[in-house]
Specification:
The chain is of the alpha+beta class. It is built from 14 helices and 19 strands. A hairpin with a 4-residue loop joins strand 4 and strand 5. It is rod-shaped and about 215 Å long.
Length: 638
């Protein structure tokens, strides 16, 4: 069983699964990082404002303490000391109640405008605390401000403001964002790799199952889905598909075996089979039917069983056409009667009919048997549309000939028996009415007639018994080992004196490799005795009868040849029929010699005996050249 392996090209399901998973992971990671960074920035900004506010309050306490200790405090110097100096340090600004700058750690107070309108200052004066992130026109940069209102006391400072550059505040969130997005990129790449692997892991078995299902749909039942070591739902699907394939393969194998069996039966069936639909179309004609109807081999699209052709195209005999179309005509008559009169039209069903078909070799007797059959419906759910007509054609030519032969045999046997019996009865009546002393010659002549016809009856009955024994269905003739020398010697003892009595020379010739051979002695004696008797009987005085025997490794051949007048070629086959005699041809015209009349069964007995010996017989004869009969008995399987 071949397993379907997926190609290296990924399918649509893989890309859908991969892109969907990757997009989902990318969106989730990006959204999560974005939210985290946003929250981190918000928290960091809050911490910065809180730190600045703490520093402002601390400076407020320091300024208040310094003012209490020394009324002549230099606020510019104090601001610079508290701010730490430098452009990147914390900017400390001390502002009085009117907005004037008393001291600034990064600028000279004389060059500064009034800060009364600064938003963080206004907010601090109003609420005690003010915080802003704005552009500083003094420093020309964005600053983060935090201002607190001072407590009442000896100091003229009303607001303490602390500020740091905004870029310093944003540096940490920016670094965090950089790290966060790098983490996001790494996570997305890892997620893509994971999505690729998962998509490949999930899509590969699905693709295998898909390819297997596609192969099965195209009739490739050798395909199987690979289950492997998986035990999940996909493995269950693959196993179910394999089970479906096995079940389908078993069903198709059963159907194919039944189809092949039906084809073999239809091909080897001796009877012709014709199946026609109710519409007059051929469904099937088997090989025997084709031969009986003398149809040529069908061509596509009607091969191999003439399916689809009309009955008239395939069946040219009118009687057979009527029998096949009877269903069609009867169905139309029934429908017409139902539609017009509501009655039922009936037609006499044709069940069986004997048909004679003209053939070049002689008439062919066919027994046609027709019956209706119910085939699977062409249209499911429509009752009656599967009705068809089955015709079985049986060649009864041999049976007809056999019946005729039996009838002729009875007639011939009756005639052959009646003739001597009539002669014997007439002779006996003559004897009974004659005077033995006065009509002694007549009595002797009649007694001779009785003896002659009684002998003929005895021969006839003996031949009939031999023929009956040969034709018996259960007759078995087992071969035995015989000797050629003894067989010819016994034959010579039986017929040499008889041949001499009619002035016919008897000769034998034996050509052998070995003496022993196998044959049934009863059948062999029937063959040799009848052939020798016929040869002597129909050879004129002065003629010669020769019996030749040839033995080789394969067969033993007996040849009986006479110098009689011969048999015309037209009668070579008929002389083997029962009671057939060609007396004129055998005796010759103008012969004054009385000829002994045979029973007409001798050569028929010879033919049956040779068949029992599994041998072959050959007749060679021409008028005036004598007759030569050759019998070949195989000694090996031929």
């Amino acid at each position: 069983m071949s397993r379907v392996r997926p190609t290296s090209k990924s399918g649509r399901f893989f890309w859908k699964l991969f892109i969907g998973t990757a997009a989902l992971v990318a969106i989730v990671v990006s959204a999560s990082i974005s939210l985290i960074l946003k929250e981190f920035g918000r928290i960091h900004q809050g911490e910065v404002f809180e730190n600045l506010l703490t520093q402002a309050r601390l400076i407020n306490r320091i300024v208040t303490r310094e003012a209490s200790a020394d009324a002549g405090v230099d606020y510019q110097t104090l601001a610079q000391e508290l701010g730490g100096g430098g452009e990147r340090g914390v900017r400390v600004t001390l502002i009085d109640a009117e907005g004037g700058v008393l001291g600034d750690s990064q600028a000279e107070p004389a060059g500064l405008d009034s800060h009364a309108n600064r938003p963080e200052v206004l907010e601090a004066l109003a609420q005690g605390v003010g915080q802003r992130t704005r552009w500083s026109h003094t420093l020309s940069r964005e600053m983060v401000y935090s201002a607190v209102r001072t407590d009442e006391g000896p100091s003229p400072v009303a607001v303490v403001r602390v500020a740091v550059p905004a870029e310093a505040v944003r540096a940490i969130p920016q670094a965090a964002r950089t790290v966060g997005w790098w983490i996001a990129v790494i996570a997305i790449v890892a997620a893509l790799a994971l999505a690729w692997g998962l998509a490949r892991l999930w899509s590969t078995p699905i693709r295998r199952i898909t390819l297997t299902a596609r192969s099965l749909s195209r009739g490739h039942l050798s395909a199987r889905a690979h289950v492997g070591s998986f035990t999940d739902e996909l493995a269950d699907v693959a196993q179910s598909l394999n089970d479906l394939r096995d079940h389908q393969a078993a069903q198709l194998e059963t159907i194919d075996r039944q189809r092949r069996t039906l084809e073999v039966l239809m091909r080897q069936l001796g009877e012709g089979v014709i199946v026609a639909s109710k519409t007059g179309r051929i469904i099937l004609i088997n090989e025997a039917g084709r031969r009986l109807l003398e149809l040529p081999q069908p061509k596509p699209p009607y091969a191999p069983h003439f399916a689809g052709m009309s009955v008239e195209q395939c069946v040219r005999q009118l009687d057979l056409q009527r029998m096949l179309l009877e269903l069609k005509v009867r169905g139309a008559a029934v429908r017409s009667a139902d539609a017009n009169t509501g009655g039922a039209a009936t037609a006499p069903p044709v069940v069986e009919k004997r048909v004679e078909l003209a053939r070049a070799a002689g008439p062919l007797s066919i027994l046609a048997h027709v019956s209706e059959i119910q085939l699977p419906p062409e249209t499911p759910g429509v009752e009656g549309n599967g009705v068809a007509r089955l015709m079985v054609l049986t060649d009864i030519t041999e049976l007809t000939r056999t019946v005729q032969v039996k009838a002729d045999f009875v007639a011939n046997a009756s005639h052959e028996l009646r003739t001597p019996l009539s002669a014997m009865r007439a002779a006996i009546e003559t004897i009974s009415e004659a005077d033995p002393e006065r009509d002694a010659a007549t009595v002797r002549r009649c007694i001779g007639i009785v003896e002659r016809h009684a002998s003929r009856l005895e021969e006839l009955v003996a031949d009939l018994l031999d023929l009956s024994k040969l034709e018996a269905p259960g007759a078995r003739f087992e071969p035995r080992t015989l000797s050629l020398r003894e067989t010819i010697r016994d034959l010579t003892q039986r017929f040499e004196s008889r041949a001499a009595s009619v002035n016919v020379a008897w000769k034998t010739s034996v050509t052998r490799v070995e003496d022993d051979f196998r044959a049934n002695p009863y059948l062999l004696r029937l063959v040799l005795d009848n052939l020798s008797d016929n040869a002597i009987k129909f050879t004129p005085s002065g003629g010669v009868v020769t019996v030749c025997v040839e033995r080789d490794a394969e067969a033993v051949t007996f040849t009986v040849q006479d110098t009689g007048c011969g048999i015309p070629a037209a009668f070579h086959q008929r002389v083997f029929e029962r009671f057939f005699q060609v007396e004129r041809s055998r005796t010759g015209t103008g012969s004054s010699q009385p000829v002994r009349r045979g029973t007409g069964l001798g050569l028929s007995i010879v033919r049956h005996a040779v068949l029992g010996l599994k041998g072959k017989i050959k007749l060679q004869s021409e008028p005036g050249d004598g007759t030569r009969v050759t019998v070949r008995i195989p000694q090996t399987a031929e």
